[in-house]
Amino acid sequence: MKKSLIILLVFTLTGCSFGRYFYNNVHHVVLWRASDYVSLDRSQKNLVIQESKDFIVWHRANELNKYRDLLAELHHDLETDTLTMEGAKVYQLRAKQLTQNIVDYIKPILPDLLSTLTTKQYEQIINNLTKRLERRQKRTLDDRVEDGIEDMEEWFGELTPEQILVVTELETQRFARYTQRHQVRQDWISALENDIAEEVSRHLSFNQTLWSLLENSLSSNESNDSIGATIWFMSNEEQKEKVLEKIEETQETIDSLLDVE
Questions:
Q1: pLDDT bucket at 181, cuts 50 / 70 / 90
Q2: Is residue 150 a contact partner of residue 235, using CB atoms and an 8 Å limit?
Q3: What is the pLDDT of residue 226?
Q4: Any idea of the CA torsion for 184, 116, 105, 75, to the nearest 10 degrees?
Q5: What is the spatial distance between Cα 239 and Cα 212, in angstroms, rounded to a whole number?
Q6: Are the CB atoms for 1 and 117 separated by under 8 Å?
Q7: Which domain holds residue 182?
Q8: How many CB atoms lie within 10 A of CB 54?
Q9: What integer pLDDT is reported at residue 165 of this predicted model?
Q10: Which of 107, 187, 235, 249 could form a disulfide with 239 if both were Cys (CB 3.0 to 4.6 A apart)?
Q11: What is the CA radius of gyration of the chain?
Q12: Which residues are CB-neighbours of 163 under 8 A, at least 6 positions away?
C-alpha cells in the first residue's frame, strides 16, 4: 500500500536525482521502504512488485523524455547565463507538473491496494506515521538549518556566508509554519483512525486522508525550489560549474535509461 506513496516521495523529494539502480529495481526499494510502515503478506508483496514494475514501464515510456527535455533547456539557460527569476519559476511549474503526472497515475491504484489490508495493518501504518511525525516534531531549528545547508551544498558545493544566511532565513520561516501546523497533522492522524472503523469503505476514506497528508508534505517542499534559484543567482563560477556538472550527470542517467546513444 505504501508503495504508491513511497514511489511518489522518492521521485519528487529527491528531484530528478534518481539513479539507474533505483529506477531499474524500484520494486525492491519500494518493499524495503514499505517495511518501515507495514508488514505485508506474500500476496500483497507480489501485488506491490507488479504495480511497481508497471509504474516504471509507464514512467519510462511517458515521462522520462519530459525530464530530459526540461533538464536540457535548464542546462542551456544556466550555461549561457540567460536564466531569469521569472524563467526559474516557469521551470518550477514544469517540474511540479511532472510530480502531478505521477500523482495522477498512482491515485487510481492506491484504493485497490488499500482494500487488501487488514485492520492490524491499518493500525501499523497509523502507529508508524505517528512515530514519524513525533520524530520530526522533535527536530530543532538548528537541525533543519543544518539539513537545508547540506541539501544546497550537495548541488552548489560550499556555500558562502551570504548564502547560508538565506538558507537559515528560509528554514526559520518553515520551522515556524511547521510548528503552527502540528495540530493539523495530529488531526490527520485522528482522521485516519476514524477511517478504519468502517470496514466496507475504509480503503476509500483512508486513501483520501493519506493523500491530503502527502500533498501537504509535498507543497511544503516547494520552497526548496525557490531557494535553489535564489542561491543560483548568488553563486560564483565554481558553484555554477558544479550545478552544471550535476545536471549533466542526471542527463547521462536518463539517457542510459532511455537507451539513447
A1: confident
A2: no
A3: 74
A4: 70
A5: 37
A6: yes
A7: 2-258
A8: 13
A9: 96
A10: 235
A11: 20
A12: 152, 156, 231, 234, 235
Q: Give the CA-trace dihedral at 196, 199, 205, 209, to 10 degrees.
A: 20
Cβ-defined contacts of 70-77 (< 8 Å, 24+)? 70/94, 70/95, 70/98, 71/16, 71/247, 71/250, 71/251, 71/254, 72/251, 74/247, 75/244, 75/247, 75/248, 75/251
User: What pLDDT does 19 receive?
Assistant: 64
Number of domains in the chain: 1
Nearest-CA neighbor of 189 among 128, 113, 115?
128
* Amino acid, single-letter form, for residue 1: M
Distances in whole angstroms, Cα of residue 166 to Cα of each of 150, 155, 159: 13, 16, 10
Unique residue bearing C-alpha cell 513525533: 134
Distance separating alpha carbons of residues 96 and 114, to the nearest angstrom? 26
Place 234 in a pLDDT band, splitting at 50, 70 and 90: very high
Place of cell 546513444: 261
Q: Is 142 left (phi over 0), alpha (psi -120 to 50) or beta?
A: alpha
DSSP code per residue over 79-140: HTT---HHHHHHHHHHHHHHHHHHHHHHTTTHHHHHTT--HHHHHHHHHHHHHHHHHHHH--
